[in-house]
Amino acid sequence: MRLQFMLSEIWIGLRRNASIAVSVMLVTMVSVYLMGIAFLAQSQVDTLKGYWYDRIQVSIFMCGKNSPEPNCAGKAVTAEQRDALKTQLESMKPLVKNVYYETEQQAYDRFKDQYRNSSLSDYLELGDIPQSFRVQLSDPQKYDVIASAFEGAPGVGQVQDQQKTLEKLFSIIRVVTWGSLFLAALMVLCSVLLMATTIRQAAFSRRRETGIMKLVGASNFTIRLPFVLETVLAALAGTGLAVAGLWATTHFLTPKIAIVLPDAPLVGQSDIWYVAPWLAVFMLVIAVLTSWLTLRRYLRV
Amino acid sequence: MIRFENVSKVYPRSNRPALSDISLDVERGEFVFVVGASGSGKSTLLRLVLKEENVTQGTVLVAGQDVGRLPQRKVPRLRREIGTVFQDFRLLPNKTVHQNVAFALQVLGRSRHAIRQVVPETLEMVGLEGKEKRLPHELSGGEQQRVAIARAFVNKPPILLCDEPTGNLDPTTSLDIVRLLDRINRTGTTIVMATHDDDIVDQLRKRVVELDNGHVVRDENKGVYGGGR
Predict the structure, then answer these.
(1) How large is the ipTM?
(2) Could you say which protein family the record assigns here (chain B) (predicted)?
(3) Residue A213 at interface with chain B, using a CB cutoff of 8 Å
(4) Domain range enclosing A36
(5) CATH code of A97's domain
(6) Domain assignment present for B151
(7) What does the pLDDT look like over A72-101, one tens digit per residue?
(8) pTM across the whole model
(9) Which helix (H) or strand (E) holds B101?
């Protein structure tokens, strides 16, 4: 009865305005997709931070026999120098959580294993990566303390902070996040304007129907509801497509990132299911608000 | 049923009032012709009853409600009490006769069961049985106006407003339409019909209210079009 009539009116309306309904759908799709990308990028940063701040290390590379650093002066570290460094590290205990010693052989094996699929490993020789102390800090931010204490110390070639490399990655992801958020905001604005135009046009092309509805005493709600529902349907269809797009993106992109960042936790499909309802609710609110406000203006009693 | 108390209406950007100081009382079940030249205020009078316009001064009472003070959200309820017929029929061109009439009930949320019962009854009453499946452009002008009347009356409103319903029709058809309105009137429906069709007014001998430049210049029972002139 009532519902069926409403649905058939909506169907007629959508069919009559098919091209513009599709354009609302597509614009919504792009804006939701970009928003989703921003959310995924941000949650990627968060998971990576949590994961890496536990594992982050400062590496103190000692001089090898081929080390180019001037501090080494072409000589490898001696056993006494190494022991002195070790003692100094142990004395910095609360800040220094753990110290691992890695020999040249271990470093060589690890590299060979990590890049086993790359031709890089073919050119590596034992001793190219010098022996090192891997220092885990209780507070990863206080890297400077370690750096200033050990840079230039006898037998030390280089002090390297992994966090610096990480920050570079994070800043790239941050650019992606803000960039896509900015574009998403623009696209949301576009979809709002497009929805408003669509409704204006639909209200005009159906002025006969709405005129008769007013005349026979249909409530404002009844007159406006089909317009609102049409917009909502188009917007939600767009959101659905965008979620599918996000799914496809993680599905095809994650394996590629996993090659570059082995065994780091990456965002996946579960993150999409977490964010999708919010995107849908957001678009729903936008569609309802936009259409209702437009109708208040262009469809008066 | 409809009562105008010292009603004036001035449209914005116009210095001449469309209606000035009109007082008028239409009883329940009456049939009233409102006559007068174009621009005399006939349509404005009907629009005030429907609250498509608001009065500038005075009071319009419809079925006991002060239309001027009625809040916007209650306007739909007022309009369910009033059926309206226009000179240009205002049918939906892509809906059949049946669908056009049913539309008025559907948008009020009536059940399918009720619609299936009431629409054929009403179509039979206006003399359109057998033409339910036609589209408006497949009908003659008179038949289209019958559809419009069926749509206005299908909800059984106590008041029927007709704004020059015969304006687009030939004399014979016009008379048929007015006879139909007369029959509806006899079911107890109050009818106010704006017209400048003198033949019809003279033949039916109903109450005639003549407007001229926004003033009531004549109000007589069993009147004729030309009146005292």
Answers:
(1) 0.88
(2) Belongs to the ABC transporter superfamily.
(3) yes
(4) 2-52+167-298
(5) 3.30.70.3040
(6) yes
(7) 777 777 888 888 888 888 888 788 888 888
(8) 0.75
(9) helix B97-106
